[in-house]
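sorry to bug you again but im stuck and you know this stuff better than me. what follows is a protein written twice so to speak, once as letters and once as structure tokens for the fold. mainly i need to know what kind of three dimensional shape the backbone takes. anything you notice is useful, everything is just below:
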Amino acid sequence: MPEPDGAFRGIWPFTSRAEVDAYAAGTDGAYRDPSSTARQFASQYLGMKGAASFSMTGTGAAREVGVGPRSGEGGQAQADPRATTMVALEQLGPQGPSGPWSVVGARSTKIELEAPAARSTISSPVTLVGKANAFEGTVAVRVKEDAMAENQTLGQGFVTGSGDSSGELGPFRGEVSFRRPTKAGGAIVLSEDSPAENQGVLRATVVRVFFTR
């Protein structure tokens, strides 16, 4: 299904053009740098512990920033931290050096979602089809509506891909039910969580979706 007319592409921290314009008119600088915005998204939205940003690609009003956890098992600093998730950002309002940035999606090479496609309109239960390689094959799924905090969801579950140590991706297919949303838009978050206790998300793929109302 096509996205609704006039639907806003942003997932976080802005979920409407009005929010972007209001922020742009202020003096806060937290979301005027793409790397900083990507790190905060990884930490505050995904739940990635010790999130760090790495390479950035793109020009003008569209960028992609690599993020990953700086700490490993037991909270110890990794000797060679690296990007595990690529965060896509766009300036969806005022552009240029002071224009705010919005996250419009995220991807991991180890979690590929084939359906639903980004900016699809979904209803409950949503059928998820894709490929993944994760610890014990388990990929956590969260359906979130706009403005939800890290630990809030409309519904959650899991799908099972490959846990092969070769890194080869295995197919998954599953359904996740979610309660009636109060907002028009949201996101599906698929993540591999650390096997170590309280170490959060290692990598994630995030797609913008809209809800049948």
User: Anything to note?
Assistant: Helices lie at 17-24, 34-46. The longest helix spans residues 34-46.
